[in-house]
Amino acid sequence: MSVSSPPAPSARLTARERRTRFWQMVQLMPIMAILVLLFGGALVLAILQSLGFAPWFGVNTFPDFSYFGALWGSSTFWASLGLTLYYATVSTVLALILGILLALALVKTFPSKTFYKYLYKLPLMIPYTVGIALAVLMLSNGGMLSRLAAFFGMIDDPSQFPQILKTHYGWGIIAVYVWKQTPFITLAVYAVLLGIGRETEEAAAILGASRRTIFFRVTLPQILPGVVSSTLICFAFNVGAFEAPFILGGGFPDTLPVVAWRYFNDADYTLQLQGMATVVSIGLVAGVILFGYLAAYRRYERRMGRN
Amino acid sequence: MTKVQLNAVRKQFGAFVAIENIDLDIESGELVALLGPSGCGKTTTLRMIAGLERPSAGAILFDGKDVSEQPVQDRNVGMVFQRYALFPHMTVEKNVTFGLSVRGTPREEIGARLEEILDVVQLTQFRHRFPAQLSGGQMQRVAIARTLITKPSVLMMDEPLANLDTKLRGEMRRFIRDLQQRFGITTIFVTHDQVEAMELADRVAVIFNGHLAQYDAPAKLYQQPASLDVADFMGASNIVPGRMKSDDLVETAIGEIRVAPRAGFETGKDVQVMLRGEAVDLLTDPPAQGGVAGRVVARDFFGASVNYSVDCGTHQITVSEQARRLVDVGTSVRLNIDPERVWLL
Ligand SMILES: Nc1ncnc2c1ncn2[C@@H]1O[C@H](COP(=O)(O)OP(=O)(O)OP(=O)(O)O)[C@@H](O)[C@H]1O
Ligand SMILES: [Mg+2]
Questions:
Q1: Looking at this predicted complex, what is its ipTM?
Q2: Which of A1, A206, A212, A307 should one mutate to test binding to chain B, selecting the residue with the greatest count of B CBs within 10 A?
Q3: Scanning A38, A93, B115, B177, which has its CA 20 to 30 A from the CA of B160?
Q4: Which fold has domain B236-344?
Q5: Which Gene3D superfamilies match (chain A) (predicted)?
């Protein structure tokens, strides 16, 4: 059965509506100005520079695509990009799985729950650099784990401990990201879980659904907003983060932020422009991926009748 | 279909006792209302029957078999939650078929049963909508359809009418009663509205503070409550203290009232006399004696019926009758009370 649609609102605005719009714009001005100047300005500068506009270095070949050409033409760029995305994706996915499990556990009642609710947030308050230092202390050859393994006779000497840090598998980097971001995702998902309550899960159980079915067909779709927003933030951070891959990574080929840093730090300051091209590339890649992710999620939301 | 029994069921949350030794027998195909004030343990009782909560002591039997250890999924019960608990990310259709699809029912059968139930609850035209796009009454019908389609042997409803307006409430009551009779499902219905309980239920279980105060047919509960608390909760307004003068006469502050003799109420016993407003006749052309003398002090007109407050000295008695005539405030009257309809507590 079709329902007759209401008459379409006329495209012409009344004088009153126009006035309201105008005042809305005026009220938005200050924040818009800051946004445009700070973010827009920096972005425009970065793009200009990567296209050869840097008179302050005595370089001005604008518009010049050679920096991008050189960058995208080399195979190491693609290797770096692959590594960057690999670390970012694996750690986001791992943190997501752990975060969801933790959040699901936290909505249950168990003894000394309050204590655990504080405990899991601890990494949120500790800076990344401390986390990296902890990773070095714990995971390196000669670190705590290797010594313990040697002490309990699992290996003869700490140096025989399997290499965790400074490999291109990036277990150290991933460990730091996961350690730091699991609580963040837990927090986001936990809040959403509290909001949706237990009733739909109980209703599903009464209707005969197993625990697995309940999770995948009832709980997960409902916590999706929390999942999407928190993984978006984590992934964006992981793509652009510099310290962890710099200290814990496996060296050449480096991740893109480290590559950019090396360009910026080079004695030859004209390489700054190459660095800018790298930074803009990171931005492009991250932007495309995040936009695609959001667009897919929006499509799903719309299919569900949410606007 | 299924007979439900609660044997000495008790539920504790930590040190707090929510349900204290409740015994309840619900016959197969019966519609029972759980009635009681907020926080008395109605929802908890329902959740234990459903298997969402495990009794701290006692047993719950379905057709004589103990189900206390049986997980929720295997009990084949249905529950309509107070706030419906629809799956917000599924259309009406998906919500309704969820129970069948997780049980692995063949696709053709799901389709057929879906059409049937959508027709019963009159939701066919809303089948592709999401819960957020439905009205309260429509959501409730989805919740009921989602439960009924699985053919539960016990149907539970937790205040399903609480959020509806008066008209929709009446419609939904008739609708539920209809369905329940059509399918003959053992139904347990939670409410804190005594009118709703009396209108819908075969029997009503009144619960106070985790205790079962009375379990009887609506008429019995209304006319012959087991205690003052129950009488009060069932809306009894005319309760007058007195003393048995003989086994069929009570001496009260408003005069002598003739009653039907009853075991346990011997001469000299202190009693409470309950008079239902509609069981009292208001005589404006008073005989010289007999009955209770009084004066009309207030009149509340409801259209079809009318309530009078009659001042009888120490107490005011409320009398209600059909509005075939109107007695003016200030009129001297006599109250004639049928001894069979006086209830002693
Ligand atoms: N999970 C729980 N933990 C602790 N106490 C609880 C829990 N669930 C219920 N209670 C307590 O048990 C008592 C009975 O609760 P219940 O939900 O059964 O009340 P109810 O009769 O359904 O009330 P209402 O009409 O307000 O819904 C209440 O005092 C409530 O605070
Ligand atoms: Mg309740």
A1: 0.82
A2: A206
A3: B115
A4: OB fold (Dihydrolipoamide Acetyltransferase, E2P) (2.40.50)
A5: MetI-like
